[in-house]
């Protein structure tokens, strides 16, 4: 008969062996999930790279923002916000949908199609720079800032530069291959940050931010051409390809105009209502609170068109179930990140910035809360683009833009800056029926997901306001409440 000690040793050995087997099994499962060339493997790798790239990018972005906030003055961030919104507006007002067209088209790997797309993109870049030059004087008059007359033509050169970016960047996105793209994006960001900090120390002017943008564009252009594999583009005009791009892109063109108005209406309108100093403080707060939305937009833009294309939700219950799992995972992760900023916004600003930016803490809290409705529904937008239905996507973005502009104006008139922040969330509530309409058309609507995430979001909002009540009350009083 075995002794009690021998029995214990045998049991321990068996337990250890079981742990080894279980651990080995888990390692194999994880390896299988992330390896291979299937949709799940590519999506998992792309998600991991996107999240890792976004996290690293935001750390660098935050570090540079902290340094620049000490080297420059709040008015510089206000003026640069106007420059940025005009440049982004030009990009979106002229977007003909080249990138999503390449991602969803059956001809997305055809050299003639890609070369025609690149030719259109290059012509667009030249036109955008000329438009930036033409807009400089009227924008300077509208915002009563003569410096914009000089800043906009120089900043617009970045549009000319990026117009020469190769289509191999879009091909990498089409096939969910983001390894080199993420590495290059890191290099581009580091180059821009180093240029911005060095120039800010030397010039002590908003020019540092403008010139660093050109540095980033040039570095990106060179690295995309040298290090991304794929077609070496040349000027070409194939009529069928151009017709497909224009047909698909006409609704994208209108959609991006509306998308710009939805996403940038706050800066366009608040930049006129507020002083550049207060507007600069608002942008610091928005910069911090926007992390969850930026990550969500990046994930949905990069992943959902290929996933919806290969797993149409209306094709089978299995596809819908897989998309539901993905949707819950994305929404919960983004809501957790939004909760972090909503709860700790005031503390973060107090730790990282000086007293000039104190009010930005309450802005972080309120903006993080008011972005929750948009986070909940953001996984629906790309379903129509994946199906090639850019018209319905335009209708959705138009509805969101209209309600956002109306809500911001009414919010400002009713409650100043605090009213504008609240209107950000209210606008998405009014746009929700249109979101449901599009999602149902694509057979992608998931009411269970929306209801559960709304309850989670409501809990986050109530708790965040309770924790930061003093800062929120101070912002309300400063807004004339």
TrEMBL record:
Keywords attached to this entry: Cell membrane, Membrane, Transmembrane, Transmembrane helix
GO cellular component terms given for this protein: plasma membrane
Pfam families per UniProt: Polysacc_synt_3
Membrane topology: Multi-pass membrane protein
Record localization: Cell membrane
Entries under InterPro entries matching the protein: Poly_Biosynth_Transport
Transmembrane annotation, as ranges: 126-143, 149-166, 178-201, 207-228, 240-262, 274-295, 328-353, 359-381, 393-412, 418-439, 451-469
UniProt superkingdom: Bacteria
Annotated family: Belongs to the polysaccharide synthase family.
Protein name stated in the entry: Membrane protein involved in the export of O-antigen and teichoic acid
Organism encoding this protein: Roseovarius lutimaris
Taxonomic path: Bacteria, Pseudomonadati, Pseudomonadota, Alphaproteobacteria, Rhodobacterales
């Amino acid at each position: 008969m075995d002794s009690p000690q021998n029995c214990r040793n045998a049991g321990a050995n068996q337990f250890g062996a079981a742990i080894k087997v279980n651990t080995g099994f888990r390692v194999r499962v994880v390896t299988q999930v992330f390896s291979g060339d299937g949709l799940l493997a590519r999506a998992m790798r792309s998600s991991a790279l996107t999240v890792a790239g976004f996290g690293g990018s935001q750390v660098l972005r935050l570090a540079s923002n902290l340094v620049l906030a000490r080297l420059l003055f709040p008015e510089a961030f206000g003026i640069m916000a106007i420059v940025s919104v005009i440049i982004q507006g030009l990009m979106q007002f002229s977007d003909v949908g080249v990138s999503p067209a390449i991602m969803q088209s059956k001809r997305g790997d055809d050299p003639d199609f890609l070369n025609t797309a690149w030719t259109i993109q290059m012509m667009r870049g030249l036109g955008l720079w000329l438009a930036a030059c033409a807009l400089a004087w009227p924008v300077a008059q509208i915002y009563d800032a003569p410096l914009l007359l000089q800043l906009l033509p120089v900043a617009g050169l970045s549009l000319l530069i990026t117009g020469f970016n190769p289509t191999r960047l879009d091909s990498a996105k089409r096939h969910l291959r983001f390894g080199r793209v993420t590495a290059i994006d890191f290099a581009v960001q580091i180059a821009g940050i180093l240029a911005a900090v060095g120039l800010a120390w030397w010039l002590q002017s908003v020019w540092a931010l403008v010139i660093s943008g050109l540095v980033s564009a040039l570095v990106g252009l060179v690295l995309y051409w040298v290090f991304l594999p794929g077609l070496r583009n040349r000027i070409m005009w194939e009529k069928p390809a151009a017709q497909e791009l224009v047909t698909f892109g006409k609704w994208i063109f209108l959609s991006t105009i509306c998308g710009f108005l939805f996403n940038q209406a706050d800066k366009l309108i608040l930049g006129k209502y507020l002083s550049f100093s207060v507007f600069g403080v608002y942008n610091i707060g928005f910069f911090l609170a926007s992390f969850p939305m930026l990550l969500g937009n990046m994930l949905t833009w990069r992943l959902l068109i290929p996933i919806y294309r290969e797993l149409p939700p209306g094709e089978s219950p299995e596809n819908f179930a897989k998309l539901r799992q993905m949707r819950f995972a994305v929404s919960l992760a983004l809501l957790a990140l939004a909760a972090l900023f909503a709860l700790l916004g005031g503390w973060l600003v107090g730790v990282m910035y000086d007293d000039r930016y104190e009010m930005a803490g309450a802005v972080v809290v309120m903006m993080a809360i008011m972005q929750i409705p948009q986070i909940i529904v953001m996984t629906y937008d790309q379903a129509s683009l994946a199906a090639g239905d850019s018209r319905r996507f335009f209708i959705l973005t138009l509805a969101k833009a209209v309600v956002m502009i109306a809500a911001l104006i009414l919010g400002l008139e009713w409650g100043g800056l605090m009213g504008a922040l609240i209107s950000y969330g209210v606008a998405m509530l009014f746009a929700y029926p249109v979101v449901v309409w599009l999602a149902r058309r694509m057979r992608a609507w998931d009411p269970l997901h929306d209801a559960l995430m709304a309850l989670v979001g409501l809990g986050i909002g109530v708790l965040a306001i309770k924790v930061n009540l003093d800062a929120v009350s101070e912002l309300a009083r400063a807004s004339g409440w």
